Q: What sequence folds into this?
C-alpha cells in the first residue's frame, strides 16, 4: 500500500456518509477511499454516527399497511436494488471512476486548456463539476483561487504547490483562502481528479480570458 | 464477500429509543470507553440474529420485528432529510425490502445493524430524492479466511451502543449541529470546524479489522 499523506476532511466524510454531497464530490471521495484504508475506516465511523442519529430520531408512523406492502414488494420482486457493473483491475482509474470514464488515459478525448494542460469533464449532477486533469511533467497549472471548495485527488504522478507535495492517493481540499499554483513533478504526467462547487478563479488576465472559453 | 455467522444465540427485546434522546450536559467525551448495560448490547445482538434469520430461513416474524423498530426511524430520517411524507413512506418500504434482499451481504463484524440500515437508507435517499448517480468505493475482498469472531461481532455491537450513548450525552447545541450536518442542513463550510464527535468508541475495532485484512493479504 502506498503511503497517503493528505486525507479527506471531517465535513467531507460526514457529507459522504450522510449522502448530502454533490455527485462530483462523492466521486472524489469514493475514489480516494478506494485508495486509502485510513479514510475507509473513518467513513465506517461516520456511517456508524449516522446510524445512531437515525436511531435517536423521534420515530414517524409508517402507513398502516406498510409491512404488508413491503412484503408484497419482496414477494413480487418489483423492487431490487440495481447491481454494480464489473470493474477492470490495474487501471489508473480506481473502480468508482471507471463508471464515469470510458477508456484508458491514452484513448480518452482530452481537451487542451492551455499551457500543455488538458482536461476531460465528467458528467455529473450540476450542483458541482468534476474533471480529469492531465498536467505534463514539470508543467504548472495557472495560478488560481477558489470561490467554493475544490478537491484535487492525484491518480498518477505528483504535484507540488504552496502547501505541500501531493502524490498518488493524496487529496488536497482547497477553499477560498487558498491561491495556489500546482506544478507537476518531473517524471510522469500528473493525472488528477478535480471537483469544485464553484468556478475556479484564475488570477492572471490571460488565464481568466481563457477560462471563458474552456469552461473551468 | 460476506461471512457466515450462524452461531448467534442471544435474542431480546428492541432498544428503548428514548435512551438516545436524553441529554446529560457532559461534554468531556473522547476515546474513553463508556459503560453500556448488557441489555442494550443484547438488543443489538438480537437485531443481528433477526437479520440472519431473514437471510437463512426467510423468517417473516424476525423481519416484522426489525420492520417495527427500524421503519419508523428510517422514515423519520428521510423526512428530516427533506422527503415529503409520501416519498419517505415509499422510500422506507424500499429500504426495508433491500434489507430482506441483501441480508446475505450484512457482516456483523464490520457494521452494526443500525449502521447498515442507515447506509441503505442513505443510498436510497440519493437515488430517489436527489436523483443522482452514486459513486461507491470499490469493495474490499475480505477473503474466505476471515472467519467472523463471535467476540468481534459482540464487540462491534457494544461499541456502537457506546457511540450512541456518548452522542446522547453531548451538549445539546453540539448534538444539534451534528444532526443538522447529517440531515443536509449545513453547507460544507458550515461544518468546516471540528464537530467533536466521540468517535473513539468505535475507531479501534474498525481500524483493527482493516489492519488484519491487510496483514492477511500480504
A:
Amino acid at each position: 500500500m502506498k503511503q497517503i499523506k493528505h486525507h479527506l476532511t471531517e465535513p467531507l466524510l460526514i457529507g459522504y456518509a450522510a449522502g448530502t454531497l454533490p455527485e462530483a464530490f462523492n466521486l472524489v471521495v469514493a475514489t480516494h477511499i478506494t485508495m486509502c484504508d485510513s479514510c475507509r475506516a473513518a467513513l465506517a465511523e461516520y456511517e456508524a454516527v449516522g446510524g445512531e442519529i437515525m436511531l435517536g430520531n423521534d420515530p414517524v408512523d409508517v402507513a398502516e399497511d406498510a409491512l404488508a406492502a413491503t412484503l408484497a414488494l419482496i414477494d413480487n420482486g418489483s423492487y431490487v436494488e440495481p447491481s454494480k457493473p464489473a470493474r477492470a483491475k490495474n487501471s489508473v482509474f480506481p473502480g468508482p471512476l471507471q463508471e464515469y470514464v470510458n477508456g484508458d488515459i491514452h484513448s480518452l478525448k482530452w481537451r487542451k486548456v492551455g499551457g500543455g494542460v488538458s482536461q476531460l469533464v465528467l458528467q455529473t449532477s450540476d450542483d458541482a463539476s468534476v474533471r480529469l486533469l492531465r498536467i505534463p511533467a514539470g508543467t504548472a497549472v495557472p495560478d488560481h483561487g477558489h470561490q467554493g471548495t475544490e478537491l484535487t485527488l492525484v491518480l498518477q504522478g505528483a504535484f507540488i504547490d504552496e502547501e505541500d507535495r501531493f502524490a498518488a492517493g493524496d487529496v488536497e481540499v482547497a477553499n477560498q483562502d487558498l491561491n495556489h499554483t500546482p506544478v507537476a513533478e518531473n517524471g510522469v504526467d500528473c493525472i488528477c481528479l478535480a471537483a469544485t462547487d464553484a468556478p475556479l478563479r484564475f488570477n492572471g488576465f490571460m488565464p481568466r480570458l481563457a477560462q471563458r472559453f474552456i469552461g473551468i | 464477500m460476506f461471512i457466515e455467522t450462524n452461531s448467534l444465540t442471544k435474542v431480546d427485546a428492541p432498544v428503548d429509543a428514548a435512551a438516545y434522546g436524553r441529554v446529560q450536559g457532559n461534554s468531556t467525551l473522547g476515546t474513553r470507553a463508556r459503560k453500556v448495560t448488557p441489555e442494550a448490547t443484547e438488543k443489538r445482538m438480537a437485531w443481528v440474529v433477526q437479520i440472519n434469520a431473514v437471510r437463512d430461513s426467510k423468517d417473516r416474524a424476525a423481519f416484522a420485528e426489525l420492520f417495527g423498530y427500524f421503519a419508523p426511524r428510517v422514515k423519520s430520517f428521510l423526512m428530516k432529510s427533506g422527503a415529503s411524507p409520501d416519498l419517505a413512506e415509499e422510500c422506507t418500504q424500499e429500504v426495508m425490502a433491500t434489507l430482506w434482499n441483501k441480508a446475505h451481504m450484512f457482516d456483523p463484524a464490520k457494521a452494526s445493524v443500525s449502521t447498515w440500515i442507515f447506509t441503505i437508507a442513505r443510498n436510497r435517499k440519493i437515488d430517489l430524492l436527489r436523483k443522482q448517480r452514486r459513486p461507491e468505493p470499490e469493495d474490499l475482498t475480505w477473503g474466505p479466511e476471515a472467519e467472523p469472531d463471535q467476540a468481534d461481532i459482540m464487540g462491534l455491537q457494544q461499541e456502537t451502543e457506546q457511540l450512541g450513548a456518548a452522542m446522547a450525552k453531548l451538549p445539546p447545541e453540539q448534538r444539534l449541529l451534528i444532526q443538522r450536518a447529517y440531515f443536509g442542513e449545513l453547507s460544507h463550510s458550515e461544518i468546516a470546524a471540528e464537530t467533536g464527535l466521540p468517535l473513539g468508541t468505535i475507531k479501534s475495532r474498525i481500524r483493527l479489522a482493516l489492519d488484519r485484512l491487510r496483514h492477511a493479504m500480504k
Summary: The mean pLDDT of chain B is 81.
